[in-house]
Specification:
The complex is a heterodimer of chains A (369) and B (452).
Chain A: E1 8-12, E2 15-19, H1 25-32, E3 58-63, E4 76-77, E5 87-90, H2 95-110, H3 126-134, E6 151-153, E7 157-159, H4 169-177, E8 183-186, E9 193-196, H5 209-213, E10 219-221, E11 234-239, E12 248-254, E13 257-263, H6 284-289, E14 297-301, H7 325-328, H8 362-366
Parallel strand pairs in A: 1-5
Antiparallel strand pairs in A: 1-2, 3-4, 3-5, 6-7, 7-10, 8-9, 11-12, 11-14, 12-13
Chain B: H1 18-23, H2 28-36, H3 39-49, H4 61-66, E1 76-82, H5 91-98, H6 100-114, E2 116-123, H7 128-143, E3 159-164, H8 174-181, E4 205-209, H9 210-229, E5 231-232, E6 235-236, E7 239-245, E8 251-255, H10 261-266, E9 280-284, E10 293-294, H11 295-299, H12 311-314, H13 318-321, E11 329-334, H14 339-353, H15 359-376, H16 382-395, H17 403-427, H18 431-434
Classes of the chains: A alpha+beta (369), B alpha/beta (452).
Bound molecules: iron/sulfur cluster and FE2/S2 (inorganic) cluster.
FE2/S2 (inorganic) cluster (FES) binds next to loops of chain A.
């Protein structure tokens, strides 16, 4: 019999779970799921050394362990603090945590441009979700917001530094996924920026993944920029045989057009693992060059969390209103339809416009044919 | 005259050179330690002496040394933190500049105690000329057999290297210092792991302040027993204070922590009083990040007792009515100084020095600076004062490293004790551009807190 590993019991928001030693509080909370899992803007389980920076995941440790039940004096970053046996953690049950977290959200937003209406990330932006779920209404900041010069990062990747929250994920990605990192953090404090030292394009087979790890719209896909709002596109899981990467992707379609290719994401917004247990990073070729349906084998519609705005586009089992025009027009397909009966005698006897349904209501969609 | 242990010989002609330093009794502690003591005995002695870190936090040095992990086959490192960048603090510079061999001597003994064969002095970039002084001292020590292989036949090898920083305040934080020493961007690390387990190049590391290391020399020379007798309570030995601001005699003083704050400011032996017959308004006793105190709380505690220049007395009353010994950067303000303006200056400093890794510090420091600027220039609102309070509260304790606290505390203390002055700025937007609030009631005796 294999030796049984001793598991640690940890209680988060009054729910107890057992996890392996070495698990962080955040990952233990993710096992419970739902609201108990603290929001994470910088931690990325697939990137070594990430986390600890944004401070959105702060939690209160009410008891350190069974052996030493003293509380921890300060809130701790749950993404970088390991559980101990018998630890008691308070996340949403702690006033202190909620207060500090609202503070962090406010800090992250004071210099953010809030340009969601023109930002490609809108709809799948973690900062939007974070502020919606943990922020306060309004702002107390009435100064000019910080802006940055735009940097060119080559033909595929757009860096919009003004939106960056300095999570360092893209830096870790380049460090850990590519042979040579050419971008990083320059300067410091509130004027620190992600950049290449001298204008340089990021070109490396896997560098496109920085777009997927970026929680905000600071790094976006140039081949998709301004093409469509994500919630109007239709995500499907697809794959192809790729010699460089796992080839497992998500295509974002409009009709038969492949507008965008990304890696597949899990419920925490991180890139999914492949069935072999590896992180499903995808290569630049799959991401930027394969924009034809014929390049891909479609597996089917992607599962989208029903709370996501992207889920508002239903594409399976959609109820469409009955189409009556062509019947009414005796098989013709009108380009333009106007009621000119009061001024014209044309077609008067043949076409009965009252057979047209009125404006669509929810009932129209509900009524099954 | 209080007893001097560190600066006693600082003014002997030529003390910077090895020959004079040795003639005056230098390097005796190395002989004693390497020939008659074991590394553990030295650590024990330092523990017994009650020496507390002189960089600011005041953590017991011996205890810190005993935390050092000692896995077999892994090198250990001692790093001397010479990144002295806290505004108002310049004691380490004085020590390194005038009596560099004392630091080298302390480093050899401490390296022996900790088993560090390669020891580093990380010095702030602005102290460029001191690098030469230190390197010369190291050179001389080596030429005379105090460094190198098999020192004094003890089998202990040690080299000391000086590494210059590029002049960032944050690199005084020990893990940022380590990153910078490794040649990386000076970002504080996320702890744990602590340097005692994983420091320089992932090896166990102790980072100590210059003055702390120097203090090891007298501890070994006179023994912990004698060292303990100087000072009071948990404030043992002597402390270097760098005094500046509105005083007659700014400079570095070595005190034995038994004198009162009043004596330190007014006696001729130390600061020599306030120039031009002005009155004392406020003081930051331990470097820019510790709470500022108005005169009435500086000279007497909330209980009405005399405040002394030592760790316990300065922090008596907690942050509500006390301050901290900190790094010993003693900044004095006379009645003509404006607390709002001064707080703005500090806020600007911390904003500029924030590393930018964590959101509360990166964004919060800039925000505070902007609001303070408005208040100082007569554009503030009453609600700004509460907003400032709320911002500092949301930074404090929520950041990766202590810089967040260091930025929050001065703002908190200024509002706590000088709220009237902030309100006066808001209510008198024009007048505050022409004159300062002045002394007001800040030196009036405080009503004693009635025990419940
Ligand atoms: S660009 Fe995006 S991924 Fe990179 S640090 Fe900024 S927010 Fe994070
Ligand atoms: S997710 Fe833990 S600090 Fe950012």
């Amino acid at each position: 019999m294999p030796e049984e590993k001793k598991l640690f019991k940890v209680t988060i928001d009054n729910i107890t779970v057992e996890v392996e030693p070495g698990t962080t509080i955040l990952n233990a909370a993710r096992k419970i799921g739902g609201e108990v899992a603290p929001p994470a803007m910088c931690y990325y389980s697939k990137l070594q050394g990430s986390g600890g920076k944004c401070r959105t995941c702060l939690v209160e440790v009410a008891a350190g362990s069974t052996a030493d039940p003293r509380p921890m004096p300060k809130l701790v970053a749950s993404c970088r603090t390991n559980v101990m046996d018998g630890m008691v953690v308070k996340n949403i049950t702690s006033e202190k945590v909620l207060d500090a977290r609202a503070g962090v959200v406010e800090f992250l937003l004071i210099n953010h441009p809030l340009d969601c209406p023109i930002c490609d990330q809108a709809g799948e932006c973690h900062l939007q979700d974070l502020s919606y779920e943990h922020g306060k209404e309004g702002t107390r900041y009435d100064f000019k917001r910080r802006t940055f010069e735009k940097h060119t990062l080559g033909p595929y990747i757009q860096l919009h530094m003004t939106r960056c929250i300095l999570c360092y994920r893209c830096v870790f990605t380049a460090d850990q996924l590519t042979e040579k990192r050419v971008h990083g953090v320059l300067d410091r404090g509130d004027h620190a920026e992600i950049a290449t030292y001298i204008e340089k394009s990021l070109d490396n087979d896997f560098i496109g993944n920085v777009i997927d790890v970026c929680p905000v719209g600071a790094l976006t896909d140039k081949t998709f920029r301004f093409k469509n709002r994500v919630w109007f596109t239709k995500p499907v899981d697809a794959h192809r045989n790729c010699s460089k990467c796992c080839g497992r992707t998500q295509l974002w379609l409009r009709g038969d057009e492949v507008l965008r290719v990304t890696a597949r994401k899990d419920e925490w917004g991180e890139i999914q693992n492949t069935p072999e247990g590896k992180t499903g990073w995808i290569c630049n070729e799959c991401r930027f060059e394969k924009k034809h349906l014929s390049d891909w084998t479609i597996e089917g519609p992607s599962l989208i969390n029903r709370h996501s705005v992207i889920a508002q586009g239903h594409y399976v089992g959609v109820q469409k209103p009955r189409e009556v025009f062509s019947k009414l027009m005796h098989g013709q397909k009108p380009k333009l339809l106007m009621d000119i009966h009061t001024v014209s005698e044309v077609n008067k006897p043949n076409i009965d416009l009252s057979a047209l349904p009125g404006p669509a209501t929810s009932e129209v969609f509900d009524s099954k044919e | 005259m209080s007893k001097k242990l560190l600066l006693e010989k600082a003014h002997v002609e030529g003390i910077r050179t090895y020959d004079v330093y040795r003639r005056e009794g230098g390097y005796r502690s190395v002989e004693k330690a390497l020939k008659t003591m074991s590394p553990d005995q030295i650590t024990e002695e330092v523990k017994k002496s009650g020496l507390r870190g002189r960089g600011g936090a005041g953590f017991p040095t011996g205890l810190k040394w005993s935390f050092l992990a000692k896995p077999a086959g892994v090198p250990r490192y001692l790093v001397c933190n010479s990144d002295e960048s806290e505004p108002g603090t310049f004691k380490d510079r004085y020590l390194m500049e005038f009596i560099p061999h004392l630091l080298v001597e302390g480093l050899i003994v401490s390296s022996f105690a900790l088993g560090s064969n390669r020891t580093f002095i990380y010095i702030r970039g602005e102290y460029a000329w001191i690098v030469d002084i230190l390197e010369q001292a190291i050179e001389e020590a080596k030429a005379n057999g105090w460094l190198g292989k098999n020192i004094l036949g003890s089998g202990f090898d040690c080299e000391i290297y000086v590494q210059r920083g590029a002049g960032a305040y944050i690199c005084g934080e020990e893990t940022a210092l380590i990153e910078s020493l490794e040649g990386k961007r000076g970002n504080p690390r996320i702890k744990p792991p602590f340097p005692a387990v994983k420091g320089v190049w992932d090896s166990p590391t102790v980072v100590n302040n210059v003055e702390t290391i120097a203090a090891v020399v007298p501890i070994i020379n006179i023994g912990a027993e004698e060292y303990l007798k100087i000072g009071v309570g948990k404030s043992t030995g002597t402390k270097l204070i760098s005094a500046c601001g509105n005083i007659n005699k700014p400079g570095v003083y070595e005190i034995d922590m038994t004198i009162s704050v009043e004596e330190f400011i007014y006696s001729d032996e130390y600061c020599g009083g306030i120039p031009n017959g002005k009155k004392l308004k406020a003081c930051i006793p331990g470097g820019s990040s510790v709470p500022i105190l108005p005169t009435n709380l500086l000279l007497k505690t909330a209980k009405g007792e005399t405040r002394y220049m030592n760790y316990e007395s300065l922090s008596d009353g907690g942050f509500a009515t006390g301050s901290m010994m900190g790094s010993g950067g003693f900044i004095v303000f006379d009645e003509d100084q404006c607390v709002v303006r001064h707080t703005l200056t500090l806020a600007r400093f911390y904003r500029h020095e924030s590393c930018g890794q964590c959101s509360p510090c990166r964004e919060g420091t800039g925000w505070m600076e902007k609001i303070l600027k408005n208040i100082e220039y007569g554009k503030g609102k009453m609600s700004d004062i509460d907003l400032l309070w709320d911002i500092q509260r949301k930074i404090e304790g929520n950041t990766i490293c202590p810089l967040g606290d260091a930025a929050a505390w001065p703002v908190a203390a200024a509002i706590r004790h000088f709220r009237d002055e902030f309100e006066w700025h808001v209510n008198n937007p024009d007048e505050c551009q022409k004159r300062n609030y002045g002394l007001a009631h800040y030196a009036d005796p405080r009503p004693l807190a009635v025990p419940a």
